[in-house]
Each structure stands twice: as C-alpha cells, then as structure tokens.
Amino acid sequence: MLVPQRHGLVWLDPGLDVSEFIADPAHAAAAKEWIERDLPLVLARQPEQQDAGTHITVGLTLPPPATRTRVSLVVPSTAILRQSGPLALAQAHDAVDGRCKELVQRVLDICEDANVAPCVYGSALWQTVSNRTYMTDTSDLDVLFVCNETSHTHRLLDALETCDGSKPRLDGELVAPSGWAAAWREVSAAGMAGGMGTVLAKSTYDVRLLRLEEFFGQKDA
User: Fold this and answer.
1) Per-residue confidence at 66, pLDDT binned at 50, 70, 90?
2) How many C-beta atoms surround the C-beta of residue 131 within 10 A?
3) How many CA atoms lie within 13 A of 99 on its CB side?
4) Tens digit of pLDDT for each residue in 166-199?
5) 64 phi and psi, to 5 degrees?
6) For residue 217, what pLDDT band results from cuts at 50, 70 and 90?
7) DSSP track, 100-140
8) Domain range summary for the chain, segments of one domain joined by +
C-alpha cells in the first residue's frame, strides 16, 4: 500500500485516462505526454477527507513554454506503478548551471557536516528529472533538509544563514524528526526568539501553527 510522503515521487501507468482525474482538463494532453515519457510526479499534501487507500493527490509543473503552470491530479492508487522518496539534492548537481551548481555543492557540504539529508523540489527538481530548462534568473533553489535524531540542526541553520544573498536564493523546508516540515527560515527565526517562536508546520495531511518545541517533538499527524 502506498504511504504518501510530501515531495515524494510517483510514476503513473501510461494507460491512465488523465482526463478523468485532472483538475484542469486544458492540461490533460500535456500531463498525459509527461506520464507517457515515464517522468515522475510529486506527491502533494493529501486532503484529510480523501481516502488515501484508493486515491492520491499528485502534481507536476509543466515544462517551457508553460513553465510555472502547476497541474494537479487525484489519481487511483492502483495507477501508481512505483514510488520513491524525495529526490536527493546531489542528483541535481549536474542538471543545473553556474552559480546554482556552486550553491548546490555548498549546501551538500553544509548538510554533510550537520548530518542532514538534503533533497530537492521545485524548479531544480523538474529540470533534473525532465532534462528541460526550468531554472531562470528569478528561480529559487528549493531544498528539503531532512533531519534525524542525530542531526545538528543548530549547526545547519547557522550555516544556512551564511547563504543569505546567494544567487539563486536558497529556500526550502526543514523536516524535523517528528515528521513535521516548515520553512527553514521560519525555524531559524523561531529559534532566535529563544525557542518560543512558532512555525507554520505541514505534514502529509495537516497544516498547523506549532511552537518550536512541538515542531521538533510532536509526531506527524
């Protein structure tokens, strides 16, 4: 049985009748072509009322010239041929250019030092899996910083702050061992508030405003 994980990847049956499951029928042809090329879609946050045992919400961002056009589908779980976790950031290194490549390497080094597993989503993900140009001069590098009980989160956040002003801008989420995820900049700001700040935390099924101690200690809902 599929266990949904935000930012995880799924590959769909190319025989799927996309028009039955897509939010905007105008994008059905492009989504069908994407699936037929055996390219992955991303698992989105799942509605609580949706039966995860039978249907899963997934999405993709269309390639140029329709870049930034996001497509959402609610597909039968039986249409999923295979799945994986979020794409490792290291896999994006050779797919991006110039300053972005330098930033990817810098983040990889930071995460290795902090014992954190970096993954990628957003434009750099789509560029990596499709071999099409998604990254522009205004794109961010979106990184998922997956922490475990032995990660040095303070060391991670201190080092990430040194990337402020980078081109592209470093954005993304920190995933706590609890399973909750929040923008790493929010987590950093909450920590600077003596640990008494709050973050907008997301799980596979929920969004909540949590105190920092809850964010790191409360189990995923």
Assistant:
1) confident
2) 9
3) 14
4) 999 999 999 999 999 999 999 999 987 666 789 9
5) -55, 145
6) confident
7) HHHHHHHHHHHHHHHT-EEEEETHHHHHHHH-S----TT--
8) 9-84, 87-217
What mean pLDDT is predicted for residues 113-122?
Answer: 98
Contact yes or no for 158/185 (Cβ under 8 A): no
Residue of 114, 132, 111, 110 whose CA lies nearest to 123: 132
Do residues 162 and 131 touch, judged by C-beta distance below 8 A? no
Instruction: Quote the CA–CA distance of 117 and 87 in Å, as a whole number.
Output: 11
Residue partners of 214: CB distance under 8 A and separation at least 6: 201
Phi then psi for 34, rounded to 5 degrees?
-60, -50
At 28, phi and psi to the nearest 5?
Answer: -60, -45
Round to whole Å and give the CA distance between 158 and 123: 25
**Could you tell me if 125 and 42 are in contact, meaning their C-beta atoms sit under 8 angstroms apart?**
yes
The answer to pTM > 0.70 is yes
Structure-block tokens of residue 197: 């700040």
Whether the CB-CB separation of 91 and 120 falls below 8 Å is answered with: yes
H helix intervals, 24-92: 28-36
